[in-house]
């Protein structure tokens, strides 16, 4: 038993570096590590063999990572013909695929691809096989400090490619059994208000969940209950076990075997995982159930921590890229928290001796308190917030979902084809969900966003349990007081030198958002783009400000185009007293015209363009601003084009010199004229650009023009968030992809200069 646990620990340690490696080594290095592992395996010492096994797992992880990156180089250079199976679809234009062959050559394992905005001829459903000509693109995501890491998520989900469908023809129109089952449930529940939640619980399809429902679940901290996860797979396994035990009652005693319910539980969990479309959280839960079954059949007594380690190692060996999944680590910590909580803080004696409803209610409260306290560190790290109403909400939601909704839903899945019975079962599920959502809506909005200072303080739940259990508050009270003071002190913002400040160009895709940061306050130059249902402020700027405990005081809007002012309304809703400066002459906007000078936190802002008269709109009406602290200067240009650049230069050649220039109009060939570059004579050019943009920005000729003039070129598409630290006459620029968080899964994949 001990050898098994040590091997599991070695496997986890071996695969863990995949989280932090800046790059994946080549095959010669992997071969050398593999050879070293085999050599260590022949040393007659257990420690050497554990190290050897860890190195083998490390090589296995590196091999999987290399395989996940292989499609980027092989298939993205030109259009290819593939045979692919549709794994999921919205029935219209958004589809997920698994490529089975490329140019007639089978590939294994299949590679996941997603296509968006692609209409296909005829009706579509999961399970169909299509032959298509695709232009494949490697995954590429916006990278900001504290933001959602879409590249890491895509690799963890085994969907490293997106596709533009050039042509398509069906090979088979037959839908999969799961798709047919989904259609039957959708038909039976079509008139029910909570059909979207039903489909999420039954099949893991959350496309029908409304924004209002998602927001309510987030506010109440119950979102984890509405998607098929480990809890739901475990419930299915429990139902399978109970059914098998009931069947056993009709057997004679000598025919009853303890393995039958265990095998039935695994089969039930497997069926539910298949219904979920084999999504990674469900598959991980199924692997855990299988490992648990295997350990039970060993006839030994395994502790909770030993089963936990075996499950983690088994899941990581099965799929090393799981180490990149936030949901995996959330599940791992959740289980660890439960084991730790019940070992270190067992139920009080008076509750353990109680009976009936009283004991159940206190046991549930005890469980929810433990989860809330111990999961807080990872919840803050991943979601940047906590729900204050989660305790009350889960006290209601967990038993309702566990003991009523899911069992009734499983019955509905089995009996949905029986007209009268199936319809009434789904109606019952819908009414239970209506009761739940009505109750949740009565709770106050409990969601509170917190900043990264509270990450250390969030560990206080674990620390408090340890202090209480070991009675340290009696024997080492001075140490405890010092520890508590240090935890609270960690939330106090550090005062920076008065002459130190920062500039951050956020990666907002196609658009612009630059933050000037000093003394915990922010001035923004532009607010990114907007689109139906969202904008850059909601998606990037506001979460970034909250996470870094920054308060915006002023916003400069360069001009009226949506990709520069798209997030303004969202920012004003969050901070109604924001001072807005712009050349737009809109109500509530302070002017930003040529010749105006203002001070903000010791920095001088000088507007160089546009003139007050004549009235100018569009790109050439952009408010061009020089920002200076007396030593360092940066020129902000918005989308100004060559005509306005030359007009601005007249009589002002000497005052345009700067250390850094924000590249006008995202690097369009209509901007960045040679006279402007000579006049500014900066050393660095910062471009806010988006990969795969429709305008193929930045222009290669413009990039070359900057480089020929001695500028060092940076773009958010290439580097992600760009941060400039300024301290008196010294300054340094750091990029997220190369310096702030250099990881192998953050690289620019595919061709080096692809921007369209």
UniProtKB/TrEMBL annotation:
The protein's topology relative to the membrane is:
Multi-pass membrane protein
What keywords does the record list, in alphabetical order?
Cell membrane, Membrane, Transmembrane, Transmembrane helix
Subcellular location per the Swiss-Prot or TrEMBL entry: Cell membrane
Give the coiled coil ranges.
Answer: none
- Where does the sequence pass through the membrane? 20-43, 223-244, 282-299, 305-321, 328-345, 357-383, 395-418, 477-494
What residue stretches are annotated with the Metallo-beta-lactamase domain? 510-691
- SMART domains in alphabetical order: Lactamase_B
In terms of InterPro entries, this protein maps to:
ComA-like_MBL (IPR035681), ComEC_N (IPR004477), Competence_ComEC/Rec2 (IPR004797), Competence_DNA_uptake (IPR052159), DUF4131 (IPR025405), Metallo-B-lactamas (IPR001279), RibonucZ/Hydroxyglut_hydro (IPR036866)
- What protein am I looking at? ComEC family protein
Q: In which organism is this protein found?
A: Buttiauxella selenatireducens
